[in-house]
Design a protein that fits this description.
Layout: E1 24-27, E2 34-35, H1 37-49, H2 68-79, H3 85-102, E3 105-106, H4 110-119, E4 123-128, H5 132-141, E5 150-153, H6 165-174, E6 181-185, H7 188-196, E7 200-204, H8 213-219, E8 222-224, E9 234-235, H9 242-252
Parallel strand pairs: 1-4, 1-6, 4-5, 6-7, 7-8
Antiparallel strand pairs: 2-3, 8-9
């Protein structure tokens, strides 16, 4: 598509409001670009089962934003696992590798959206809590690895989400100010990380995080049901004075 016209909605032809003035778009991976959150519960159940530990249905709040290494530390300490943190991460990578390359699908419309953003000259980044090994494998499997200018994992920065570290790191490497970045995230911890970084955030609906919907709506600037329905993204900025708050946050960055 010719530059300067903006990304258009698939059905209505309207420009996407959330992209106006944005020079970079940063995506979370699991639950946002790929449909993978279901897999991790299966892995947790199987892995804890190796040690005769039942899977708790209610894990402590905040675990959803932890980096891969932070989660391994948490599991070792919380469940008293007889493995080192490095061994736990190796175990998880081994258990997930085949599924990430053969069973994990992209969210509907995600690949098309990425190509359209790239055609418009947007800089693209990934800010994920997953391991670098699995990220590289799944992006290559879906032939979208070359679309991203920067890929950063939580293990490569100071703190995991909801700390802003990973988003600020990606923006810095892209050479873009935080206020000029649009973030796509599926869980509340990730949405908060994007907002803490001074960025505009679009929450993506995902079955795994449906229980967080009220919090996601409270934190995010936009809400998207599917990348196949981009023109239907709900603008949440005008609710409860959020637009003014978002403007002030950007000015402070």
């Amino acid at each position: 598509m010719p530059g300067g016209e903006g990304i258009k909605g698939d059905q209505t032809g309207k420009k996407l409001e959330m992209l106006r003035g944005k020079t970079a778009v940063i995506f979370d991976l699991d639950g946002t670009l790929i449909d993978s959150m279901w897999l991790w519960k299966e892995i947790d159940i199987e892995y804890l089962g190796r040690f005769q530990i039942p899977y708790p249905e209610n894990l402590p709040d905040g675990i959803g934003g932890m980096s891969f290494s932070e989660t391994a530390v948490f599991f070792k300490e919380y469940f008293k696992l007889p493995r080192t943190v490095e061994e736990i991460m190796e175990d998880w990578n081994e258990m997930a590798a085949w599924k990430y390359t053969h069973e994990i699908a992209l969210k509907p419309g995600a690949k098309e959206f990425l190509h359209r953003l790239k055609a418009e000259g947007k800089k693209l980044g990934i800010a994920t809590s997953n391991s670098r090994e699995l990220v590289d494998e799944v992006l290559k499997a879906h032939k979208i690895d070359a679309l991203f200018d920067v890929i950063r994992t939580g293990c490569e920065v100071g703190k995991g989400k909801p700390a802003p570290d990973i988003y600020l790191s990606v923006a810095k490497e892209l050479g873009v100010a935080p206020k000029d970045c649009l973030v796509f995230e599926d869980v509340a911890e990730g949405i908060q990380a994007g907002k803490n970084a001074g960025m505009t955030v679009c929450a993506v609906e995902d079955e795994y995080s449906a229980y967080q919907m009220e919090e996601k709506r409270r934190l995010a600037d936009y809400l998207l049901a599917s990348f196949t329905r981009l023109e239907e993204a709900e603008n949440l900025q005008s609710l409860d004075g959020k637009a003014e708050g978002a403007m002030e946050a950007c000015e402070d960055v």
